[in-house]
Specification:
This protein has about 375 residues and is an alpha/beta fold. The protein contains 15 helices and nine strands. The strands form two sheets. Strands 1-9-6-4-2-3 form a six-stranded parallel sheet, sandwiched between helices. A three-stranded mixed sheet has the order 5-8-7. The chain is globular.
């Protein structure tokens, strides 16, 4: 067994109604003014107002920045930084899915250390801890509440870049399943599949360890058994709890094992064609899983198949095509498009997307060695 290391440095609170613990956490950090980073979608659902009320009722000032968009841009981060400085905030609350959390992490870096967001692009360029940040996910999900990365879109380059550093891990996370029970079915589906892919890619990663395997297996068990019933009925509390925990465990897994070609390829799809991250991942998944089959080890593909199959009977005479077909069935059941062309991807951008995909560190984690020609072929196949 190869050497590895891991740490779980965060303070995580899980439970229905656990949002009420927010003021207690803020007071522990001597924070008297919060910048709440979220989006107008959650504002329209009343979730932003709910959090604002909890904070203000505790005697803590709260300023909200709600101009976060999917695939957030450099400009979005710069505007959040300006708001933080102008209002005199002393901590950040990130409320939402991956986009608000990505903005919050990058904002936390810039208000503490200055400079431009691109100064921190890449691995481990953040020099120390950022300002106190509490992550409150409203999707299950990105797992961003427990991951050490912030993904931002540089519109000038049509490129999604990552800031990766364990210094940007949120100091706290509040996992309240009530908050994901308001999600539309389409959001629950795309985010849920994204969470499953986090666990799947971490599980087959070149950097997988016994720790990441444990997190990934439990995540796939929880999500695979509950994603269909959760999309069918978001008010199903048992399914919501399972999805919330599954998403967080998947995040813990890929924070240490990294991901793979699905995520390397999905970022350019989102950057060029503004496809939602979870949808892009889900569409690419069957094609990449089929490609990676040659590198399957220890029967992991069969285990993944048993986690997601709808009838839950043990597999007999398993083969790779059974897993690929089951993934396609899951996507169809959840209303996710079956090809890149269905989400607006054009073939004339494939070579440029492939070049960008190869810049991702996730390609190194992918279990089957991959060249730019392989990525081009995979994009064409997924069309």
């Amino acid at each position: 067994m190869k050497d590895f290391n891991f740490k779980v440095p965060q303070d995580i609170h899980f439970g229905v109604g656990s949002l009420k613990k927010l003021p207690e956490i803020l007071k522990e950090n001597q924070s008297d003014h919060v910048l709440l980073i979220s989006d107008h979608g959650l504002e329209s659902l009343g979730v932003v107002a709910k959090v604002e009320k909890i904070v203000k009722d505790a005697g803590i000032a709260c300023t909200s920045f709600l101009d976060v968009v999917p695939n957030p841009t450099i400009e979005c981060v710069e505007n959040a930084v300006k708001t933080y400085k102008e209002c005199g905030a002393t901590s950040i609350v990130a409320l939402g899915g991956g986009s608000p959390m990505d903005v919050a992490k990058s904002t936390g870096v810039l208000v503490k250390f200055g400079g431009k967001v691109t100064d921190y692009e890449g691995l481990y360029k953040v020099p120390g801890p950022i300002v106190p940040m509490i992550a409150i996910p409203t999707t299950a999900g990105t797992g961003s509440e427990v991951t050490a990365s912030s993904v931002i879109t540089d519109e000038a380059r049509n490129y999604k870049f990552s800031i990766i550093s364990y210094e940007i891990l949120p100091k706290y996370a509040i996992l309240d399943p009530e908050l994901i029970m308001t999600a539309p079915a389409s959001v629950a589906a795309s985010c849920g599949v994204d969470a499953f892919i986090h666990a799947l890619e971490a599980y087959i990663s070149n950097f997988a360890t016994p720790f990441t395997d444990a997190m990934a297996e439990k995540a796939m068990e929880l999500i695979g058994s509950n994603i269909r019933r959760f999309v069918a009925n978001r008010k199903d509390e048992t399914a919501a709890c399972a999805m919330m925990l599954g998403s967080t465990f998947a995040g813990m897994s890929f924070a240490w094992a990294k991901l793979g070609n699905v995520h390397a390829m999905s970022h350019p799809v989102s950057a060029y064609f503004h496809v939602a991250h979870g949808v892009a991942n889900a569409v690419l998944l069957p094609t990449v899983v089929e490609y990676n089959a040659l590198a399957d080890r220890d029967g992991r593909y069969e285990k993944i198949y048993n986690f997601i199959r709808s009838d839950k009977k043990p597999a007999e005479n398993f083969n790779t095509q059974m897993l690929v077909d089951e993934i396609r069935k899951l996507n169809k059941d959840l209303g996710i498009p079956s090809s890149l062309s269905e989400v607006g991807v054009k073939e004339d951008k494939i070579e440029a997307m492939a070049e960008d995909a190869m810049k991702s560190a996730n390609v190194m984690a992918n279990p089957r060695a991959t060249s730019v020609k392989d990525i081009i072929a995979l994009y064409h196949k997924a069309m």
